[in-house]
Amino acid sequence: MEPLDPALAGVRAYLSHLDGCEVAVRTLSGGEYVGPLSCLLSGNVIFVGPSGAAPCIRIDAVESVLLVRGVPGR
User: Fold this and answer.
1) Buried-state track 56-70, b at ≥16 Cβ within 10 A, e below 16
2) d(Cα 40, Cα 45) in Å, to the nearest integer?
3) What stretches in the chain show pLDDT beneath 50?
4) Are 20 and 68 contacting, i.e. CB atoms less than 8 angstroms apart?
């Protein structure tokens, strides 16, 4: 079992708090995605966009996340 990276754990917690909100995500490779956030934290990935059509993004590739609409933590 790999040791848990504290920085990655913090990112996971933050993204989990925004689950279900509309966000704008920028990746380290320059990709930009806007839509509802869905977290699959056991796999360390998130989905941003419409259900069933959202791209899968590894959380260690996320550069920034901006809350567009919604109430975090609900």
Assistant:
1) ebebeebeebeeeee
2) 5
3) 1
4) no
Task: Name the residue type at position 62.
Answer: V
For residue 59, the model assigns a pLDDT of 87
Cβ burial, residue 18 (10 Å; 0-12/13-18/19+): buried
Tens of pLDDT along 49-69? 888 888 889 888 999 999 999
In the block, tokens 């806007």 appear at 34
> In degrees, to the nearest 5, what angle opens at C-alpha 15 toward C-alphas 41 and 25?
110
Q: What is the chain's alpha carbon radius of gyration, rounded to the nearest angstrom?
A: 12
Are 37 and 28 contacting, i.e. CB atoms less than 8 angstroms apart?
no
